[in-house]
Design a protein that fits this description.
Elements (H helix, E strand, L loop, with lengths): L3 E5 L1 H14 L3 E5 L9 E2 L3 H10 L10 E5 L7 E5 L2 E5 L7 E7 L2 E8 L1 E5 L4 H7 L13
Parallel strand pairs: 1-2, 2-3
Antiparallel strand pairs: 4-5, 6-9, 7-8
Length: about 140
């Protein structure tokens, strides 16, 4: 598979991004919804975009993703990745959760809280907008 064509809005794109990351395949998102930060190709431009894709006349924009592994200490649990963010919280919202935080193998610390949200540069736009801030454009190149 050379690419995944996603028809929909940003929610559809985010779901497809998890599968595309597992397969290491790029995504072409076609906006069939409203705003479309992630699905930048307009529905009216889909044929032009597909022609460019098939001709190899596209720039693949790598994006950082985040992966969360949640489970009891020392045992296997749930693992999921996300293009925008991961949210970890207790099923019962009125209870605290205790989280051991690591980045890769490095222990960061332990957090006792209602939950935790970790956003990628792609996902930070929504958090910035909800706080009255600007649209944040993720870097086009990774360091």
């Amino acid at each position: 598979m050379d690419a995944i064509l996603v028809l929909g809005g940003d929610g559809t794109f985010l779901s497809a991004a998890r599968e595309a990351a597992r397969a290491d395949v790029p995504i072409l998102g076609v906006n069939m919804g409203g705003l479309g930060f992630l699905t930048e190709t307009a529905e009216s431009d889909v044929y032009v975009a597909l022609e460019r894709l098939l001709a190899g006349d596209v720039e693949i924009e790598p994006r950082m993703m985040v992966e969360a592994r949640v489970g009891p200490r020392g045992r296997a649990g749930w693992t999921e990745c996300g293009l925008n963010d991961v949210v970890v919280h207790q099923a019962d919202e009125s209870r605290m959760v205790r989280l051991d935080l690591k980045i890769g193998p490095t222990m960061i610390g332990t957090l006792a809280a209602d939950g935790l949200i970790v956003a990628t540069p792609t996902g930070s736009t929504a958090y910035s907008l909800s706080a009255g801030g600007p649209i944040v454009r993720p870097p086009s190149k990774l360091c």
